[in-house]
Amino acid sequence: MDRRRKVELFEQIRREYRFGVGTIRGVAKQFGVHRRIVRQAMASAVPPERKVPMRSQPKLEPVKEFIDEILRADQQAPRKQRHTAHRIWQRIGAERSEVTVAESTVRHYVCRRKQELGMAERETFVPQSYDWGSEAQVDWYEAFAEVMGELRKVYCFAMRSMAGGGAFHRAYYHATQQAFLEAHEFAFQFFGGVFRRLRYDNLKSAVKKILRGYQREETERLIAFRSHWGFQTEFCNPARGNEKGGVEGEVGYFRRNHLVPVPRVESLEELNKLLLAGCRADEQRRIAGKPHTVGEAMGIEREHLLPLPAEGFELAEISFPVVDSKGCVKARTNCYSTPLKPGTQTRVKLLPAYVEVWQERECVARHERSFSRYEQVLDLEHYLDVLERKPGALAGSSPLKQWRERGRWPESFDRLWQSLRERHGPQAGTRAMIELLGLGKRYGWDRLREAIKESLALGCTDAAAVRHLVTANELVRSHTEPFELSGLERYDRPLPQMQEYDLLLSLTTTGAEVAR
Predict the structure, then answer these.
(1) Which residues contact 391 (CB under 8 A, 6 or more apart)?
(2) Of 136, 292, 450, 454, which cross-links 297 as Cys (Cβ 3.0–4.6 Å)?
(3) Do residues 250 and 167 touch, judged by C-beta distance below 8 A?
């Protein structure tokens, strides 16, 4: 019987005894309970707490002293190298193999003994209140995503408003300082302004050295970035994640609700669009104890944020390499392809996730940034002009190999290429294939893929047919415009009368009869 039903039973017993039967025996008989229950009800309207009997633990008894010795030794051990209940259970199995005891039994005993020994004290935290726009908390966390069929670890940036509860998340392959600062700019644009104070833990992107108390030697880049945007910084004590519990809780909530199951995407941009959609969806959420939804609170807080500067902070690393004989420029230790001729002076921007090659204020190449060393990042599109003159170099080229590895060269391209070589010969067939690739560069690769797929489905493997399908939407067809005719009334004539011709027919018939 639960507590509520027992309280109601006590009330009925007391009422019946006072206004009904009036005897303990009679009340017990009427309600079908023991006389002891009636006496308890008469003594107090509140049922007494149930006594939990102390049960013996014959399986655990032989190893209690062994467990206590381990816990007493842990009091002198480093905090992060103490025994867990699972580890103690493993040691019982290895060192006291004659005893068979369940892990749950050991876990319950260890939990109780740690509390008795003062090793599991629970800290009390004081709730905090925040003014609009006063503080946001920032953190990195790890997650996994399936990008183009490959499971990859990503590092996600999170910034959470402490007054409104809104949050911004963005993913990167590497948690570099550039990514850290770029994510701040995206977050400020998402919130519509800059918070007056940002709270961090002691991450390397922001802190060069931890000094006494709350003092930190910050990185020069962060100081300049902070000066540009106008916010202040505060740092938590080492190993005290509770000092930024708002973003810690946000990370757990967001991961459970928007990264489960593991997202499947085609690129990092698509993953970030998915994360942004999750941030927008959370604006409908109402946090316990808050009078507004997250979206409504963000609208109020936006009016209290610092305004955004007219220009962003320059985050890119700029260099001015020269295109080498392989059509590449070097950024740090890696080489990236360009469509420019060898010997051309370029301007390279090294961004957190991408590398851009510029010439005369025009971005001529953009690659996903590689964090390996001495790697070539090549794009087949940049070599099409050269391959038109050297078609034999296509089959064994590194750009083609990388396109295959990235999934940009589908199986349908190989089928068409093989058919063209069988029909026109290796050299002419490859040149025809290269010309079709030029259509992809001009009209878009998705359009070319669909045209080749449609052509193969129709059983046609001619380059002209693929070219027609790609350019069909742009073909110019002449249309005859209708026009009105006028002024022809003067050519109207009356219709001829045919009755006189009928007389001739009748004369011809009469003459034929006479002749017979």
Answers:
(1) 427, 430, 431, 434
(2) 292
(3) yes
pLDDT, position 478: 60
- Residue 52, classed as helix, strand or coil, is coil
Residue 512 main-chain phi, psi, to 5 deg: -70, -35
| Residue 241 in this model has a pLDDT that exceeds 60 | no
Q: Which of 7-11, 222-226, 384-388, 481-485 has the least mean pLDDT?
A: 481-485
Q: What is the pLDDT of residues 219-228, one digit of tens each?
A: 788 888 889 9
Q: Do 152 and 257 touch, CB atoms closer than 8 A?
A: no
Q: CA 483, CA 469: separation in Å to the nearest integer?
A: 34
Contact 348/358 with Cβ under 8 angstroms?
yes
Tell me: the pLDDT tens digits for 121-132? Answer: 666 667 778 889
Distances (CA, A) of 424 to 234, 271, 454, 461: 70, 44, 21, 11
Token pair of 348 as six digits: 């390279």
Distance CA 19, CA 77 (A): 67
Measured CA to CA, the distance from residue 514 to residue 378 in angstroms comes to 104
- Of 9-13, 32-36, 235-239, 302-306, the range with the lowest mean pLDDT is 235-239
DSSP string covering 345-376, please?
A: B-EEEE-SSEEEEEETTEEEEEEEPP-SSS-E
More confident residue, 310 or 188: 188
For residue 345, pLDDT over 90 is answered with: yes
Question: How far is CA 170 from its chain centroid?
Answer: 7
User: In the predicted model, what is the mean pLDDT of residues 359-388?
Assistant: 90
| Distance from C-alpha of 64 to C-alpha of 92, rounded to nearest angstrom | 10
The residues facing 143 across adjacent strands are 154
Using N-to-C axis directions, what is the helix angle for 177-191 and 220-229, rounded to 10°?
10
d(CA 486, CA 481) in angstroms, rounded, equals 16
Please calculate the CA angle 458-459-462 and round it to the nearest 5 degrees.
Answer: 105
Average pLDDT of the residues of the chain = 86
Residue in the structure block whose two tokens are 């415009």: 481
- Axis crossing angle, helix 426-443 with helix 463-471, rounded to the nearest 10: 10
Quick one: what percent of the chain has pLDDT higher than 90?
Answer: 42
Total length of the chain = 516
pLDDT in the model for residue 489: 73
Q: How many of the other CB atoms lie within 10 Å of CB of 267?
A: 11
| Separation CA 118–CA 114 (nearest Å) | 6
> Bridge partners of 137?
160, 199
